[in-house]
Amino acid sequence: MAGYKIRDLEILTGIKAHTIRMWEKRYGMLTPQRTSTQIRTYSDDELLLLLNISLLYKKGIKISRIAEMSTTQIFEASRSMQDSGASDTAVEQFIVSVLQLDEQLFHNTFHELIQKDNLSIIFSEHIIPFLNRIGIMWLVGTINPAQEHFISSLIRQKIIASIDQLPIPDPTKGKIILYLPEHEWHEISLLVYHYHLRSKGLHSVYLGQALPYDALIKTVKTLEPAAVVSSWLTAIEPQKIIDHFKQIETHMPAMTIFAGGYQIDQLGTSLSKNIRRIRTLSDLENLT
Prior knowledge:
CATH architecture of the largest domain: 3-Layer(aba) Sandwich
Number of strands: 7
CATH superfamily of the largest domain: Cobalamin-binding domain
Number of helices: 13
Helix content: 55-70%
Distance between the termini: 51 Å
Structural class: alpha/beta
Radius of gyration: 22 Å
Number of domains: 3
Largest sheet: 5 strands, parallel
CATH topology of the largest domain: Rossmann fold
CATH class of the largest domain: Alpha Beta
Strand order of the largest sheet: 4-3-5-6-7
Order of helices and strands: HHEEHHHHHHHEHEHEHEHE
């Protein structure tokens, strides 16, 4: 059982810590345990309850009314509202879908979002905040590998399905190679880059996970792309990342190189100035 601090709950639910404390005091909605130093800690069940309370509250139900409900009633009322108006509560619904391994909830939430916006906007405004929030769950220890694989697989399926709906762009306009380095298997960001480029009519060529360096070089020689794009999330020695790009610059001195991901962000000024950092999807536009 995880032990969340009140700051963790604030990040995961979007409810301010002082509001959570007020609800505890006024309505007795949560009953945290306290450490020997009197720090509040909350269980997985209390996180799930607060997420469902947050969903109802954001839908306009007064907290005094929610406080009168039993836990079962809160969950039932939340479930009845999860099929409408997902835009303002999508992150919370995604988190609930992870905790309960609820594929239908994830599908319904995503489906409603995709009716209103394209995948680039959904990724920027909903998926990234969601992934950032569940990062704290990894730290606390409440997300296990099965849950991580579950949600990663669902997100991956949605992105690939969206890519499949796009036409294959004109290859004469210049190709862009997307790849993950040999140690890297986390492909969600790279798939979104692929979708975004295709949606702009750019001919992106997706080479996928853990691509051997020699294979990258051979493909570049064959396709003669206008740029190469990679994403780096898995922890690796910074020098190995720097050396990787030095190799590319040596073998392909005229190549335009883009790189994104957490590990790239952490390098700061250590990375060559020739490497264009991907901070937002708009950084990928006008590549050719």
